Amino acid sequence: MHSNHTLLISISILFILSHSSFSSPLSPLFYSLSCPKTEFLVRASIRSAAGDDPSLPGKLLRLLFHDCIVQGCDASVLVAGNGTERSDPANRSLGGFEVLESTKRLLDLFCPGVVSCADVLVLAARDAVALAGGPSVEVPLGRRDGRVSLESNVRPNMVDTSFSLDEMAKLFSSKGLTMDDLVALSGAHTIGSAHCSSFSERFEQDPNGNLVPVDGSLEENYAMELIQKCPANANPSVTVNDDPVTPTLFDNQYYINLLNRTGLFLSDSILLKDPRTREKVESFAKNQDEFFASWAESFVKLTSIGVKTGGEGEIRSSCSSLNG
Question: Which residues does the UniProt record annotate as the domain Plant heme peroxidase family profile (predicted)?
Fold first, then answer.
């Protein structure tokens, strides 16, 4: 069963790579001559770092999405400084920057100035998913790093957890992603954690200052658990697992949670309520292999958004700053 599952994913990726115009400048073999140990070194670095920080896979996956969805997968979210993407409030809670920086330094010991930070981020997120029990996806490589990182680019492109399905679908469509991609990529919420503020619209304060649920789509006991973890006076740094059942395992539990009305975000619950997405949620909840195959396809599409190649970008010396 495992070999068939792996074969299915490989066939799916080969189909995408051979039929997709937007990924044509990229190739899984891009570094085969210039830095043949690239994938091995990234995988080893991520495995080592995740041993010290079990929350790392969720952080890297979120970091990748926040990079690609804004102005393409060009590592612009990694640039530090005032007025950069990283300084926007939506990105201030991102993590995993230091691991990517150390991975880039490791690669530059073997192949100085060859591997882009954009490719490091894609490979790191890919390997983080596999490390957490998800599928290992063959991804095309050859991205270059963007030379622009502006805070003003973030909000017009970022998905908010309070978005309606139409709002999410419109944004995804503008990036070349379909409704099915939206459902599959939302499965990233099977790992990771979120601050209380990211689902606060599902509650309101009563006259005594206590939080009460206002969202009927949230299962009652789960709603009370969230209130206990995130009371009205909760510390802003408090976080809650996206998936209350298997928070560190990349599996299809996210979709099972949706059926049980224990999806953390409003944008999660909407996928179950809307007939345009409900069938896919139910299907993924029943069949993890189907989810993994769809995830692999959608992940390749996500990581191919707005890539820069050739003279369109640069290979940064440090992921956190643009070259001189």
Answer: 25-323
